[in-house]
Design a protein that fits this description.
This protein is mainly α. Helix content is 46%, strand content 11%. The protein has one domain: EF-hand (Recoverin, domain 1). The chain contains 4 helices and 4 strands, in the order βαβααβαβ. The protein has a two-stranded parallel sheet with strand order 1-4. A two-stranded antiparallel sheet has the order 2-3. The radius of gyration is 13 Å and the shape is globular. This is Calcium-binding protein CML39-like.
């Protein structure tokens, strides 16, 4: 019997830590940072329309140092973006 790795979808409401854990499962190269492609896969798991565009906008808004990925220090900006623009309910 083979076990498949499944993607855990976020609940209706989640804490910032739960959001980070959910997002971490899309960190394909395990570098602790989220790229646009990894963020796109996360949004696709939510069945979001135009996930490529939403990922691009989220990265543009959250990537303060403009290095092309969302670092641990920038995750707060991504949380804010998710609450304001992706209709996610995330609390402290």
């Amino acid at each position: 019997m083979a076990f498949m790795r499944s993607v855990v979808l976020p609940q209706q409401e989640m804490s910032v830590d739960e959001f980070k854990k959910w997002l971490k499962q899309f960190d394909g190269n395990h570098d602790g940072r989220i790229s646009r492609e990894e963020l796109k896969r996360a949004l696709e798991s939510l069945h979001a329309w135009f996930s490529w565009w939403k990922a691009r906008q989220a990265l543009k808004s959250s990537d303060v140092n403009r290095n092309g990925v969302i670092d641990k220090e920038e995750i707060g900006k991504l949380v804010l973006y998710a609450v304001q623009h992706l209709n996610m309910k995330i609390y402290d």
